[in-house]
Amino acid sequence: IKDLVPHLKKKMQLKGKDACPLIVDVLSVKEHARDIMLEHLPEECDILSSHPMFGPDSARNGWQGHTFVYERTRIDKMLLDPSNHLNHIDSDANFLDTKGVTHNLHENSDSHIEGMDRVERFLSIWEEEGCKMISMSCKEHDEFTANSQFITHLMGRILGAQGLQATPVDTKGFQNVLRLIETTHSDSFDLFFGLYKYNRNSMDTIVKLKESMDQIIAKLLQKEGKSDTTLPGTKQSCL
Fold first, then answer.
1. What's the pTM value of the predicted model, to 2 decimals?
2. E strands within 76-127?
């Protein structure tokens, strides 16, 4: 983003501030990317935060039915409330109509309408390909993906570290486990690390997984009439 900014400023100097483009990110972690874009991009740049919840493997046969998550972040220098794309976060420019609906003083300006139209035209590309379109705040997205996308990669990495391999007596469930390992390891470790480092909810997911593992092991040992201290190599945790 920092490397892009000088080029954007040069373009605006040559063609005017209205020449600043719509910036769209498609990263797997949204709050961090959103913060970086808002901090560094010129305020004239509209921002759309998005995450296509699929990749070249899962969508090899097309995008139909796959989920596309997005947040209209900034239009016409206005930060938008993800729960209602008409609402500005700064309430000073907001007003209520006679029906109690919140509006913004700038929402009917030509620049705002043009900015919204540009965002909708971009989103329509995905919608026309059959994607399931979900408008969601970056904060909510990261909360959900920590307990879906991140934990999937985490389990794949943990199981893969055990060196599991196919056997002559594999069940369908175990075959699914091997597919999970293969799928998660097809992505780089850097991607996995990014899901961990830049999603503030990822450590909570790890802690909950650890606690759940401890609870399950404790129940097994209790059923057998043993304590966790009898488990080889175990101190206070099974992990």
1. 0.82
2. 78-81, 84-88, 94-96, 102-104
